[in-house]
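Run log // design_07
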């Protein structure tokens, strides 16, 4: 059965190669492969299985960690937001999920919920991101409070997150790294700092454990450097079918709002993908789409299930032809820039009704 639904092809060989690229950038670091948000939209369990060579997996939420354990993952798992409820603390302890501890609420929960078990804890230090974490001056008191609560949660590391590592000429990241090193002095604990941008751009951000996400999926974290320049290969290629071809007169206004008006008699293709599939509604006229290997332009407004494309360079295009929205041959970064967003959002937003085809996925164990 061939369906006309869009399809996200997931290239697991590329995923493995991108993990090898992480190791080239940070050869002395262990790797938390970040698989939050359903593996950045690529499928949590399938991505986890293919990343069996990572030292650990990082997720945002306890629930995601539990899902990985259910899938048979036995390696270390780090929950980057930690827990806020006692039930989550109990689940983290039961499933041996390491948790980021970033707030006094969590310290109290760990003290009061000691009977629920003690997951390994990474203390999160706010060195400038001002999202999660303790101020550097609070960290001594956090250690004291945790040591005082019986049986005493095990603190196994210190982490921080960089705010500007993706910006060329960024100077704040070095200061953030220095702050974490100062807080960590004398504690003998492993440190984790760099995300994709940090670990590529800044040797000081490599630390004992790096936390790459976007680069594993083959997208560049930088607006000014391409994935290919960094030795990364796209993992997801999003495709859909040409479902109709219209031959329209000069003056025909296309789609909702009629924002594109045909300047001449011309063939216009309708591709069966829209914002209901995760294609960005804000992609403007001119956004490239690959049709039979050639770039054609999106025209007018993106609908829920369809887009219009300019077929003047492809008059022979026929219903059933395959269009690539991003991936091999058309970097997702380029589409994101056109739509005023970042590749992270496009990848995460691929909808459930898009078929997923996993190519070269690991057979068997999930390590
Ligand atoms: C998402 C996330 C990462 C991964 O970031 P990328 O930019 O995708 O490499 C690392 N650390 C934390 C705390 C995160 O939230």
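design_07 sequence
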């Amino acid at each position: 059965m061939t369906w006309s639904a869009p399809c996200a092809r997931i290239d697991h060989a590329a995923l493995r190669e991108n993990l090898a690229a992480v190791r080239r950038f940070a050869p002395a670091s262990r790797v938390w492969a970040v698989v939050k948000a359903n593996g950045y939209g690529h499928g949590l369990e399938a991505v986890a299985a293919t990343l069996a060579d990572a030292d650990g997996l990082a997720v945002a939420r306890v629930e995601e960690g539990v899902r990985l354990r259910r899938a048979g993952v036995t390696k270390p798992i780090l929950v980057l937001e930690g827990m806020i409820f006692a039930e989550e603390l109990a689940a983290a302890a039961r499933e041996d999920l390491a948790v980021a501890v970033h707030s006094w609420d969590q310290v109290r929960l760990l003290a009061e919920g000691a009977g629920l078990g003690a997951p390994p804890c990474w203390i999160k230090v706010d060195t400038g991101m001002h999202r999660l974490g303790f101020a550097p001056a609070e960290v001594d008191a956090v250690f004291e409070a945790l040591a005082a609560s019986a049986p005493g949660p095990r603190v196994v590391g210190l982490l921080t997150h960089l705010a500007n590592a993706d910006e060329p000429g960024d100077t704040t990241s070095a200061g953030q790294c220095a702050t974490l090193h100062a807080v960590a002095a004398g504690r003998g604990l492993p440190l984790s700092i760099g995300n994709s941008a940090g670990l590529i751009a800044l040797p000081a951000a490599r630390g004992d454990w790096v936390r790459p996400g976007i680069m594993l999926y083959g997208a560049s974290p930088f607006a000014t450097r391409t994935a290919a320049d960094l030795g990364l290969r796209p993992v997801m290629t999003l495709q859909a079918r040409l479902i109709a071809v219209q031959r329209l007169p000069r003056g025909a206004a296309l789609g909702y709002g009629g924002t594109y008006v045909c300047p001449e008699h011309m063939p216009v293709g309708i591709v069966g993908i829209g914002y209901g599939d995760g294609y960005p509604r804000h992609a403007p006229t001119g956004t490239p789409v690959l049709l039979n290997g050639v770039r054609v332009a999106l025209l007018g407004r993106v609908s829920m299930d369809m887009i219009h494309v300019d077929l003047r360079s492809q008059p022979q295009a026929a219903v059933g032809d395959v269009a690539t929205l991003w991936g091999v041959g058309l970097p997702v970064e380029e589409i994101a820039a056109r739509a005023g967003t970042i590749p992270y959002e496009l990848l995460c937003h691929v909808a459930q009704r898009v078929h997923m085809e996993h190519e070269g996925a690991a057979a068997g164990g999930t390590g």
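The chain has two domains: 12-217, 236-359.
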